[in-house]
Amino acid sequence: MSITLHLASMVIQQAREKAEEIKIPVNIVVLDTAGYLKSFIRMDDAFLGSIDIAIQKAKTSMLFRANSETVGEFLKPEAAAYGLENTNGGLVAFPGGRPIMNGNAIIGYIGVSGGAVPQDSMIAYAGSFIK
Amino acid sequence: MSITLHLASMVIQQAREKAEEIKIPVNIVVLDTAGYLKSFIRMDDAFLGSIDIAIQKAKTSMLFRANSETVGEFLKPEAAAYGLENTNGGLVAFPGGRPIMNGNAIIGYIGVSGGAVPQDSMIAYAGSFIK
Amino acid sequence: MSITLHLASMVIQQAREKAEEIKIPVNIVVLDTAGYLKSFIRMDDAFLGSIDIAIQKAKTSMLFRANSETVGEFLKPEAAAYGLENTNGGLVAFPGGRPIMNGNAIIGYIGVSGGAVPQDSMIAYAGSFIK
Amino acid sequence: MSITLHLASMVIQQAREKAEEIKIPVNIVVLDTAGYLKSFIRMDDAFLGSIDIAIQKAKTSMLFRANSETVGEFLKPEAAAYGLENTNGGLVAFPGGRPIMNGNAIIGYIGVSGGAVPQDSMIAYAGSFIK
């Protein structure tokens, strides 16, 4: 549960700059490695419905230590993992949730929602490495 | 639901400086006037159990446009408002939740938890006025 | 609701040895015949998201006294059992949940999650017979 | 989130021996430092209603890094912390939840329920130190 507020603030800032660059207002959340809220911002005009999506993408990423879309592979109909998406209070498994890497170590998870899927994904990526 | 991220960030910063001054790690949340999450930080070493308390204090404040402890007056046993505390998903009505004032206008709500009650209250107060 | 802690511990141990043999860290749960938790272990490095999956697989197995994947047959789209997966707080109906047999009698249910589906299934099988 | 299954099993064993010594069947749970289930046993004849109590005592202890009864001090009517007990999904704040200490470090949390309060407390204490 190691991410510091200092690093979490950097992560949020990196993601926010990307969102501003591509002019998409989003919700950005940082969870610690156990899934507890560490830092959050909702940019002006971001959808209210995306608050929960951002948090659940990050949580889904945390639960399986993988990008949210990687978890999504197991939710495809042909995977036949019936009911999997209803576990853990509901998985949200499309792009926008990622581990935050500090070198080779996962120190937390970022979740982004508010734009189109590739936009959310790009913004989450921008926040997912400690520079 | 008007608070901007710019102002919410100022509110968080003002409260955080007070928390650092009195050396109490807390959770600080800003909700908009409809109770939706706008900004949040968990300072390092703040209790995990205080994340939810901070959010619920701010939400309780929002629901009745009053400080959380003012709502608490109605929860005293002698008020006989049986079941009131179970409404709205659970009221949390002790000090640490407050309206954020911009002049005479309420623009959002702050919630703080992690220290003793007077400390949480002092930190929330520090964040509750736009300077 | 008859499984004893002595037998539940044997079941967990049998499954754990299989998991260690194939080097997959998993969550292993034993429920009694009414679905109440009897014994549980999370092996080191097992996914946090698999705690709930293991428990729900075992519970799904218990609810219909069948392997979890047998219940899954009723959740295939062509079964047209609309909403079935949302009953009972959410069914989890892919391999890894099984009755525990003592001779011909069901004495409890095992659930396993953390590996690929065939691995979970193999580990659950290893725990599902009292020797 | 550091407790190993090896240490968690020792904790369960220490607590179980105390429970057997005083002839009280209980539920015993070990959570990691983030509150996730690590290990659990229900002794034969322990109350079904005590499964959740044991887990919630340990979780309450985790949320505030304190014995469950210490959290209970803040729930006394004279503390006037209205609604506190409804936070975090419901606090359970009477004896039987404790940090597990490995030297000076908290490595997890134990929760015990099934006996009278002093019995639960004694059993939890027996499991709360790595020898």
TrEMBL record, chains A, B, C, D:
PANTHER family according to UniProt: PROTEIN GLCG, SLR1406 PROTEIN
Superkingdom field: Bacteria
Protein name from the UniProt record: Glycolate utilization protein
Organism: Flavihumibacter solisilvae
InterPro entries per the UniProt record, alphabetical: GlcG_carb_metab_protein (IPR052517), PduO/GlcC-like (IPR005624), PduO/GlcC-like_sf (IPR038084)
